[in-house]
């Protein structure tokens, strides 16, 4: 593959393990399955991207990451644990908004000069933190040194404290 000096994408070929109890949410919306009850715990699994690491990957490795995300999404949809997922554009296309002297000030591009940026997320509804970590470990990015996966419990939504 000619990956000398490059980061290896060790993307698992299998589907997401569904060893945890399946959620039973009555209405998950378009991403999840109907006729399942909702768990009490929601987690944000965020994917932190380092563009230098991605640039070092071969086209085959990048394709394997994409295919792995496809398998992951299908599996968490099937298990009913996926609420939503979103991928974000590069930070160079961002706008940073602050208010100074009562007036909005808008700056193009990323807020901080950082090596990593938020590339996207999965919002999941699962039994517990251990299950959220088990799911996060199956995201292809987790197998690539220099990319990060963070799991954080949702504290509240729509003004209601959940944690």
Structural features, described:
- The N terminus is likely disordered.
- The chain is flat and about 50 Å long.
- The protein is α+β, with helices and mostly antiparallel strands and 163 residues long.
- Strands 2-5-1-6 form a 4-stranded antiparallel sheet. The protein has a two-stranded antiparallel ribbon with strand order 3-4.
Labels describing this entry:
163 residues; 4-stranded antiparallel sheet; disordered N terminus; alpha+beta; flat
How many separate helices?
Answer: 3
Strand/helix succession: EHHEEEEHEEE
Return residue spans where pLDDT drops below 50 for at least 5 consecutive residues.
Answer: 1-36
The termini sit apart by: 46 Å
What's the arrangement of strands in the largest beta sheet? 2-5-1-6
Radius of gyration of CA atoms, rounded to a whole number: 18 Å
Helix content: 10-25%
Structure classification: alpha+beta
Q: In this structure, how is the largest beta sheet organized?
A: 4 strands, antiparallel
| Strand element count | 8
What is the typical, i.e. mean, pLDDT? 79
Estimate the strand proportion: 25-35%
Q: How would you describe the shape?
A: flat
**What oligomeric arrangement do these chains adopt?**
single chain
List the helices and strands and how they pair.
Elements: E1 41-49, H1 51-55, H2 59-79, E2 82-87, E3 95-100, E4 103-108, E5 117-126, H3 129-136, E6 148-153, E7 156-157, E8 160-161
Summarize the entry for a quick read.
The protein is of the alpha+beta class and 163 residues long.
């Amino acid at each position: 593959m000619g990956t000398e000096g490059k980061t290896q994408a060790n993307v698992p070929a299998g589907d997401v393990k569904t060893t945890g109890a399946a959620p039973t949410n009555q209405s998950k919306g378009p991403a999840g399955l109907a006729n399942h009850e909702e768990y009490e715990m929601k987690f944000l699994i965020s994917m932190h991207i380092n563009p230098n690491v991605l640039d070092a990957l071969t086209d085959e490795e990048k394709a394997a990451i994409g295919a792995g995300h496809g398998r992951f999404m299908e599996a968490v949809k099937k298990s009913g644990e996926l609420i939503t997922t979103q991928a974000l554009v590069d930070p160079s296309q961002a706008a940073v908004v602050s208010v100074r002297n009562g007036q909005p000030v808008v700056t193009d591009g990323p807020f901080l000069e950082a090596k990593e940026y938020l590339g996207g997320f999965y919002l999941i509804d699962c039994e517990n933190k251990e299950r959220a970590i088990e799911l996060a470990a199956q995201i292809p990015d987790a197998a690539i040194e220099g990319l990060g996966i963070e799991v954080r419990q949702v504290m509240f939504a729509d003004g209601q404290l959940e944690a």
